[in-house]
Amino acid sequence: MDNSSETKAITITRWAAKIVTAGIFTVGGFIPKVTGNAGPLVETVPGGQNAVYAIAVVEIVTIVLILNPKTAFFGGVLAVVTMLGAIASHFGPVGMEGDMMTAFGMAIVALAAATTATVLEWKRAKSR
C-alpha cells in the first residue's frame, strides 16, 4: 500500500470522512431500524417494515465496505447512492415532518462525507 503521493492531511480527511459516514449509517441508520425505533419511517416508506430491514442491511454492508481499505471506494459509492435515495425519499413519501427533518439533515451530512471519502479513495487508488 503506497500512499507516498497522499499527504497526511488528505489521509486524515479521507479517514475522517469514512468515519463520519459510518457513524451516521450506524447511529442514524441501521441501529434504529433493527431495534424497532424507526416507527415513523416504517409508517411512511413504501414496503413498510420489510423495506426498513432491507435498508438496514444495505447500511451494514456499506459500513463494512467503507471501513475496509480494499473496498472503501465501493463502500463510498454505495453510501453516496444510498444517501441520494434517502434524500429523494424525504421529498416524497417520507417527508420532513418532526424527526424526519433531523434524519434529512443527517442524510445531507452523510452524503457530503461519503462523497468526500469516495473522491479521496478514487484519487488514492489512481496514484497507486
Gist of the model:
This protein is mostly helical and 128 residues long. It contains five helices and no strands.
Structure write-up:
This protein has 128 residues and is an all-alpha fold. It starts with 7 loop residues before the first helix and ends with a helix. Helices cover 80% and strands 0% of the residues. Helix 3 packs antiparallel against helix 4 (72-91). The protein has one domain (8-127). The mean pLDDT is 93. The chain contains 5 helices and no strands. It is elongated.
Question: What would the keywords be for this entry?
Answer:
elongated; mainly alpha; 128 residues
Average pLDDT level: 93
The Rg value, from CA coordinates, equals 15 Å
Annotation, overall tally of beta strands: 0
Contiguous helical run count = 5
- Tell me about the largest β-sheet: none
Assembly level: single chain
Low-confidence stretches: none
Q: What portion of residues is helical?
A: over 70%
Reading the helices and strands in chain order gives HHHHH
Structural class: mainly alpha
